[in-house]
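Input.
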Amino acid sequence: MKSMDDLFLSFLQDIYHAEKQGLRAIPKMVKAAESQELKDMLQQHREKSQQQVERLEQVFEQIGKRARGKTCEAMQGLIEEGAETIEQGEKGPVLDAALIACEQGIEHYEIARYGTMVVWAKLLGHNESADLLQQSLDEEKEADRLLNELAERSLNQKAAESDAGDEESAQDDGGEAGGNEDGERQEEKPQPKPKAKRSTAKK
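Output.
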């Protein structure tokens, strides 16, 4: 890259590829989530992401370049992390809290990219492109805000309560097996052996 135009194009190709990867990943997250509110939020963001891809294609057209992506390794890493979280977790509040954290990681990356590109677009005189990128930036910030609000309002607390409930259940199970009233396991005392009877037969 020898110019700001080259740099802008490189970042445009990066975020274009990142958005498309995100689109493919969201359905798996929707399926893994238990909270209907989280499912709806992810699905709504997927629709926004499709619009963002279309805006990026408009930007490519405005700068006279063909719309094509460049492998975004950062986004690949974030999506792989989400996939591992789904694979290792169990459907429920704890996994929902983890899914929000993973999706926010994706949002933060996209916010950083869009924020930088808005500034560069204005610097290069691509004002229409800057407006399109600003729309996507605003949507990403709003998605992050809503996810954060959902986590703080209910899902993080539900995850914490679920974890505490599992610990109590494990303790209860441990106290039932051979335990006394204090929940301690009783030791079995050996039974005395019967004494052998002496023979009374006369020799």
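Residues 4-162 form a domain with the Ferritin fold (CATH 1.20.1260.10).
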